Amino acid sequence: MRSTSRADQADQRRAELLEATRKVVLERGLAHTRIADIAKSINVSGGLIHYHFATKDELITAMLRATLDIESAKLDELVAGPGSAVERLDRVLRYYIPESPSDQSWLLWIDAWNTALREPAVNEIMLELETAWLDALARVLSDGTEAGEFACEDPAGAAERIDAMLDGLIIRYTLHPDVLDRGRLLAHARTAAAGEAGIPVTSFS
Fold this sequence. Notes:
With 205 residues, the chain is mostly helical. The protein is built from nine helices and no strands. It has helices at 2-28, 35-41, 46-52, 56-80, 85-96, 104-116, 120-146, 155-175, 182-197. The model has no long low-confidence stretch (mean pLDDT 92).
């Protein structure tokens, strides 16, 4: 029992450190975050952090992977959820699009894209994130086609095109919300998805 209790305490401490790391990264950016900044934010020693994570890179990678795991689980839930294929596709699109230009998840991933150019471990996580989104879109399009709701001959290719368009528009929305608001962004997403699924865009209403 004592061993299990210690393991639980260690897991809880790691979770606290990962959450603190996420908050500091959102404030300072991946490149400018230091172990000392994270330690100060929750009033612990740098030594305690190094006890759980040998290096800053290991800590950052663990934080990104924990965020990826949460988002992947949510995607699985949306894809497997109740409703028609159109309803599930719309749920995935709405989840993809950030609630606001200051959405924490998207700010984190935009920052991680830049870091991924130089850090192989972060690059791998970004590839897994992209794959999770592509798989979710493709599964809904494929399910809808099999059910006779959609007419999509290439769900994987359609998912890539929707994903690429949304990434570009979301970056614009994040940087210039006065030029592109969320309502217009969602309308673009639905128009593109409807075209790929072979249905009228009014199906999303």
